[in-house]
Amino acid sequence: MAEAQNIPAGSTTAGAIAVAAESTVATRMSAPPSFDVADFPVPHGREEEWRFTPLERLAGLHDGSAVASGDGVKIAVEAPEGVTVETVGRDDARIGRAGTPVDRVAAQAYTSFEQASVVTVPKETVLTEPIRIAVHGEGGVAFAHQVIELGAFAEAVVVIDHTGDAVLADNVDYLLGDGAKLTVVSVQDWDDKAVHVAQHNALVGRDASFKSVVVTFGGDLVRLHPRVSYAATGGEAELFGLYFTDRGQHQEHRLLVDHNNPHNKSNAVYKGALQGENAHAVWIGDVLIRVNAEGTDTYEMNRNLVLTDGARVDSVPNLEIETGEIVGAGHASATGRFDDEQLFYLMARGIPEQEARRLVVRGFFAELVQQIGLPDVEERLLSKIEEELEASVA
């Protein structure tokens, strides 16, 4: 198992099934953030932020040839009492506050959406039931924008469930007031031909807590870009991710935690399993600690389990530190094949091989699944993992 942890800048570890590297380049995009798609050149695949993405499978989202159709996606929100759900126009002041598009697809989504969905949890409201947002693809092309806003000291859990077939580019903004606590579970359970490219922006208020759990199973190509920044001090962000990449799928998760204020914390843990010919997973973990971000405490980790031949992982952790006055900063990346010793141990105790494989993979993901905190969602995801494993045997 190849591992990179606290590697000196510029060093790399490479293998037949994985690449782990460190660089300060990934936080430097080829164009500055902008809401205008015209400010971004059409990518050619040589740019740092696009070099792992098969552009020909983006269905025109990257070059402007994708045009929205009426049967793109339907968005339905189920919210507890006290939560405000609105459909607003482009001039709403909350849109874009959490972050600015950093690549051409995100800018295209911002330029092209007609109406945005805004979900607001009032200050000091503590929800005992989750907000559930269903995004269902109807077979067309869509551009969308969603905003989740929590007032000061509010607490909420939001589940965003993506299903069906679509070509979707969207931006999702999370606005956390001072002392607020938000957990977001974003599930990408698309049909086989779907294409989904999204930028997730979280702006964490003073002493606020943000937890993101990203789960990716389906789709032909899924490329997600979670980003976190801090509005003040005392904020904490936890970014968890789980992905199961099957034959022919491309799943890409590109994280950036921007420590732009002092005395904030972040922790990122993503785990993936891959199986089948040309299964390709990409994980980019960027942490930027700015010169004014004294007292930062951050860590990021990526683990990958390759179940069959023919799969590939690119895992790239990055740390860019502009001040030495920090509590701690570290990262780790590891990719390995299925552990035959674990399998032998279980089989020696009378457990059939396929059941032993299930137990190992479930154990690999258990830590992250437990972060969800919703039994119905957790059980659904564990069942989905077992379905994927069954497919590998069939």
UniProtKB/TrEMBL annotation:
One of its GO terms (biological process) is iron-sulfur cluster assembly. Transmembrane segments: none annotated. InterPro entries: Fe-S_cluster_assembly_SufBD, SUF_FeS_clus_asmbl_SufBD_core, SUF_FeS_clus_asmbl_SufBD_sf, SUF_FeS_clus_asmbl_SufD. Pfam families: SUFBD_core. It comes from the Bacteria. Residues 137-364 form the SUF system FeS cluster assembly SufBD core domain. Belongs to the iron-sulfur cluster assembly SufBD family. NCBIfam families: sufD. This is Fe-S cluster assembly protein SufD. It comes from Streptomyces jumonjinensis.
